[in-house]
Amino acid sequence: MAKRRALIIDDESGVRQSLGLILEDEGYEVATAADADQGLRAARAERFDVVLCDVRMPGRGGLEILEQLIAAQPDATVLVMSAFGQIEQALEAVRKGAWDYLAKPFTGQELLLAIRKADERERLRRENRRLRRALSHGGAGVSIAAASAAMREVFELVERAAEYKTTVLVTGESGAGKEVVARAVHGLSDRASEPYVAVNCGAIPEALIESELFGHARGAFTGAEHDSPGMFREADGGTLFLDEVGELQPPIQVKLLRALQEQEVRPVGAAKTFPVDVRIVAATSRDLEQMVAEGRFRADLFYRLNVFRIHVPALRERPEDVPVLADQLLAAHARRIGKAVDPLERDLLDALAAYPWPGNVRELENSLERALILARGRRITRELFPFLGETDGDVASDSCGLSVPTGESGEDLSIKRRSRALEERLIRLALVRTAGNRTRAARILELSPRALQYKLKEYAIDPLNPLPGDSDS
After folding, report:
1. Are the beta carbons of 65 and 40 closer than 8 angstroms?
2. How far apart are CA 51 and CA 7, in angstroms?
């Protein structure tokens, strides 16, 4: 395996030597340059995996050659180095495309950590590009991006499911990305060149759903002026995505089960059946097991759908995905509307990652599109996301809108009462972040499930509506 190569551009020989030793110990082959022009010539002549460039040097500085440097080494991790008082220039370098900046003096560990983070980012980009290509084969206009272990596990399940015709059930909250997963299953399968047909079972009136799914014959009902094949036959040879399948009423559940079992459909008003070869991917934000227990969803249909399950975690459960998604979604919308925009700054990405996103990826995408439209220039600022709140002031707010006063004038200084208020606030916040899952909330709070149940009664908290004023009563 070829050695990884690094280029160090700095006018101080001591810096070049010390950084070179650190990288050589890590297994890199190191080249150095004493000024910007020399470094640029080296970058144009050879390939490097990592480029370290000082922001300020005699003659031309790193900021002046950065764009040419990135153009010469598009696949390299470019890190800029700055001394005290040069942070603004370093941030400008990041806006221009550098991966990160290191403020001098920095340790060898900090340097290697920055490189490893960049390597992981590049690996994820390659994985995301591969998945996007698969999605595009399925005719999708969306893409998958993630940095979390939870979503990498989802990707692995998608790849396994795609190899077989087996029925897939995708679960998760509204807006979490269930249809993106369904499209990926189709796009990675041997049916990718065949139709992908999606139907939202909750958006079609009950009186029309049978006709939409199975088709109808001419004259079958008022307004049926000609034959309609229905979505099963439109998806023949490909994939039929049944979104929000938990919304189907019992009569249509029976007919759907029969179609899945027999692999044939009978249009409304028709005298004969039609064979279909369809791969089913169903999705739901409901708890189908609970619906089966309550008699609202057929057990036999549930078992027919629940052959291979893929659960898409809520965005608040994988905050490390937010920066990756935000960068990708912002770039996509900027291209679509034809507006130039700078990459999101790290402080803003951190704030977005800390927000719980009750509407999941869909809410994140809508918020970014709104911010892009409202931005007067290229820079997207925190003020364009009003739900993030202020960073300073007399109130310390969390992302759920729960707050504890911190000002000194007139506040209650009783430790007992303030401790109870803080305890209640943390319990409500944990329930928001776990979507009302008491077991996981107890784990976050480091309480036993029994202790949490006692405190829920004590504070009159509804786990499914934990925020003050959110209950339906």
Report:
1. yes
2. 5
Quick one: tokens of 59?
Answer: 């003659």
Q: Kindly report the CATH number that applies to the domain delimited by 5-120.
A: 3.40.50.2300
Token pair of 111 as six digits: 């340097």
Q: Which two tokens stand for residue 31?
A: 């080249």
Residue 105: asked if its preceding bond is cis (omega within 30°), the reply is yes
Whether the CB-CB separation of 93 and 61 falls below 8 Å is answered with no
The CATH label, of 2.40.10.270, 1.10.8.60, 3.30.70.2190, 3.90.1150.10, for the domain at 316-391 is 1.10.8.60
Distance in angstroms (rounded) separating the CA atoms of residues 366 and 388: 15
| Phi, psi of 171, deg, nearest 5 | -115, 160
Whether 165 and 207 have beta carbons less than 8 Å apart is answered as no
Q: Residue ranges of the chain with pLDDT lower than 50?
A: 134-143, 390-410, 470-473
Please name the residue that has the structure tokens 């010539």. 41
DSSP class of residue 202 equals T
Residue 395: which H helix or E strand, with range? strand 395-397
At a CB cut-off of 8 Å and minimum separation 6, what does 53 contact? Answer: 9, 10, 36, 39, 62, 65, 66, 69, 78, 79, 80, 81
- Alpha-carbon span 405 to 233, nearest angstrom: 61
Query: If you search the block for the tokens 């997207």, which residue do you land on?
Result: 380
How many other β-carbons are positioned within 10 Å of the β-carbon of residue 145?
23
Q: Rounded distance, CA 72 to CA 45, Å?
A: 9
Cβ distance 439 to 449 under 8 Å? yes
Q: Which two tokens stand for residue 418?
A: 């303030």
Contact between 101 and 74 under an 8 Å Cβ cutoff? The reply is no
| pLDDT (tens digit per residue) in 430-470 | 887 777 888 888 888 888 888 888 788 888 898 887 766 54
**C-alpha gyration radius of the chain:** 28
Task: Give, in degrees to the nearest 5, the angle at Cα 229 between 225 and 232.
Answer: 150
397-458, what's its fold? Arc Repressor Mutant, subunit A (1.10.10)
Three-point CA angle 452, 453, 458, nearest 5°: 90
pLDDT on residue 136: 46
Domain with CATH 3.40.50.300 in the chain: 138-311
Instruction: Output phi, psi for 338, to 5 deg.
Output: 75, 40
CATH classification for the domain delimited by 138-311, as one of 3.30.300.110, 3.40.50.300, 2.10.70.10, 3.40.50.1980: 3.40.50.300
